[in-house]
Design a protein that fits this description.
single chain; 191 residues; three-stranded antiparallel β-sheet; elongated
C-alpha cells in the first residue's frame, strides 16, 4: 500500500512540475510574443487576464494585424506576478489561446559573471615631428632608393655581360662543331 502511495505522489509531483515549468517566464521590462497566425483576422480578438494576484498597471498587450503576433509587455518596475492571458475570438466566443505567464520572481534567471576582463588600449605617444626631422627622413629615404637603383643597375650590367659571354661561348662551340662536320664531309667525299 505504501509503495502505491509513493508512486501516486511521484506522478502528481511530476505533473505539477510540468505545469509550473510550462508557464512562460516574463521578467519586468520584457515582452513576450504570442503567435496568433491561426486566425484569419485580429479584428475580433479580445483578451482577458485571469489568476493574477496584483493589479495590472504596467501590463500592455499589443495586437499586430500584419504579423498576427500579440506582444505582451511590462514596464521595467512591474511587480512579479503569475497570471494567464486568454485570447478570445469575440465573433464566435471561442477561446483561441491560453498563455500562462510566470512572474519571474523565482531563481530561474541566469546571470553570467565574467571574472576576468582584458582591455587592450592603444598606446599613444605624443611626439612632435619638426621640419628638420621630416627632411632628414626624406633624405635617408632618397639615399636608400639611390642605393637600390645602383644595385639594380650593377645586377643588370652583370647579367648582360654574363649573357653575352654565354652567347659567344655557344657560337664558338657551334662553329667548332660545324667545322668538324664540314671537314668530315670533305674527307668522306674525297674517298
Amino acid at each position: 500500500m505504501a509503495k502505491g502511495l509513493v508512486i501516486i505522489a511521484s506522478i502528481i509531483y511530476v505533473l505539477m512540475t510540468i505545469g509550473i515549468a510550462s508557464a512562460d517566464t516574463m521578467f519586468a521590462g520584457n515582452c513576450l510574443p504570442v503567435n496568433l497566425s491561426e486566425l484569419k483576422s485580429l479584428d475580433n480578438v479580445v483578451y482577458d487576464v485571469v489568476e493574477n494576484e496584483s493589479n495590472l498597471n504596467g501590463l500592455t498587450i499589443d495586437l499586430n494585424e500584419t504579423t498576427a503576433i500579440a506582444n505582451i509587455c511590462t514596464v521595467p518596475n512591474y511587480k512579479p506576478d503569475s497570471f494567464t492571458i486568454i485570447f478570445i475570438d469575440n465573433s464566435t466566443q471561442t477561446i483561441v489561446k491560453e498563455i500562462p505567464v510566470g512572474g519571474g520572481s523565482g531563481g530561474t534567471r541566469k546571470v553570467y559573471i565574467e571574472k576576468e576582463t582584458i582591455v587592450e588600449v592603444d598606446k599613444y605617444i605624443d611626439s612632435r615631428i619638426n621640419e628638420t626631422e621630416i627632411q632628414r627622413l626624406d633624405d635617408e629615404l632618397q639615399r636608400i632608393k639611390d642605393d637600390l637603383t645602383k644595385k639594380n643597375k650593377r645586377l643588370t650590367y652583370f647579367l648582360g655581360i654574363l649573357l653575352t659571354l654565354f652567347s659567344f661561348l655557344l657560337i664558338y662551340t657551334l662553329r667548332k662543331n660545324i667545322n668538324k662536320l664540314m671537314k668530315g664531309l670533305k674527307i668522306s667525299q674525297k674517298k
